[in-house]
Design a protein that fits this description.
single chain, 168 residues, 5 helices, 0% strand
Length: 168
């Protein structure tokens, strides 16, 4: 008796849904060519410089530098996180989040807290405090003000983006 060589396959709805939802993440290389993208990269590079200049000293002996260190590291990590979100266009995959409002709140809070930290950093730097760490603290103060101006610029661009979204 001859055997049938017919093979029947079935597909479950689970595998069909899995394959359609697990597409690759997009990569937006044009974001780094925009002014907000360039400001974000500058915030990351100079923010890293701020906290490494302080971390290389005995900052833990002075509470003011602990505050500056907290702000610098906290916003450095969050800025890297947001850069990854913008570069991979993850924001397009999560439309429930109001990204323009989140960006405005993030950049606005970074500007305010970095401004406070830069002022605290600048007023805490004295030769009498610890002359061994003076140059590192003075340099960190300068770069903290530069990073503050970068966050101010990104706050402006976030506000423009937020305003154009809310007026539609």
């Amino acid at each position: 008796r001859p055997r049938s060589h017919t093979v029947t396959t079935t597909s479950s709805s689970f595998t069909a849904n899995l394959s359609s939802s697990s597409s690759t993440l997009a990569y937006d290389r044009e974001f780094l060519r925009t002014l907000p993208g360039l400001l974000m990269v500058t915030e990351i590079v100079l923010g890293l410089l701020v906290w490494t200049l302080i971390a290389g000293t005995e900052y833990f002996l002075y509470p003011a530098f602990g505050w500056v260190m907290f702000v610098a590291v906290f916003y450095w990590v969050l800025t890297v996180f947001f850069l990854i979100i913008y570069m991979t266009m993850t924001y397009t995959r999560i439309p429930q989040v109001p990204w323009t409002t989140v960006g405005l709140c993030f950049n606005g809070s970074a500007f305010i807290l970095y401004l406070i930290a830069a002022i605290v950093d600048a007023t805490s730097v004295t030769k009498e405090l610890d002359s061994h760490n003076y140059n590192s603290w003075a340099a960190s103060s300068f770069f903290a003000f530069v990073v503050t101006s970068c966050y101010a610029g990104n706050t402006y661009f976030s506000f423009i983006s937020w305003r154009s979204r809310t007026s539609q």
